[in-house]
Amino acid sequence: MLIPATSVIRYARYFRLAKVHRVLDYGAGLLRNALYLTEQGFEVYAADVPEQVKALAAHPQAGRLAGLLTVGELAQAGLAVDLVLCTFVFNILATRNRKKQYLDNVVANLRPGGLFLIEVNSRQDDMACGSVLQHYYSCDGNAKSYNHDELDRQLSPFGFERVCHYYSSHALAALYRLAEAKKIRQHF
């Protein structure tokens, strides 16, 4: 079995204490987080791009999931989950429109007051690789990196308030709560 993201392991106990039951793993990849949480007793839905969902449908443990959805199905799914996971997906979305669509799908499937755990590449703000372009891409050129203030600015227009966050050597994990009233600004 693949090792789940550190943030998922770290917060699994908190999720149980917070009475999380239904989870959406958005950008499920190889199901490492989805299967781990299923083993922990959570009801887990997994979503990814159509090509990946097709491959995952053949996974021997896919039947243990509550559901397997394509990204295109999420806008109308209305899952009302207690938690949405996003591990190393948001940082690879290259355009504002893709980020907006992603976050719209998160909000559309998260119950008011629900939790959103997001883990992304992080960086030191010391300009170690010499970029003066705010590190749009990390030094290796593969994905955007963030700090917690930048994530807050990206997520607050969608009604998210940060609960907590932590940094590891290469990542930032932040836990957000969707405002009960879903006061969402329309601009991004």
Secondary-structure map:
Elements lengths: L5 H12 L4 E5 L5 H8 L3 E6 L1 H8 L9 E4 H7 L3 E7 L8 H14 E12 L26 H8 L4 E8 L3 E8 L10
Parallel strand pairs: 1-2, 1-4, 2-3, 4-5
Antiparallel strand pairs: 5-7, 6-7
Describe this structure in words.
The chain has a single domain (about 5-125, about 130-180), classed as 3-Layer(aba) Sandwich (Rossmann fold), CATH 3.40.50. The protein contains six helices and seven strands; from the N terminus they run αβαβαβαβαβαββ. The chain has helices at about 5-15, 30-40, 50-55, 70-75, 95-110, 150-155, and strands at about 20-25, 45-50, 65-70, 80-85, 110-120, 160-165, 170-180. It starts with 5 loop residues before the first helix and ends in a 10-residue tail after the last strand. Mean pLDDT is about 85; it is low at about 125-140 and about 180-188. It comes from Geomonas paludis. InterPro entries: SAM-dependent_MTases_sf (IPR029063). This is SAM-dependent methyltransferase.
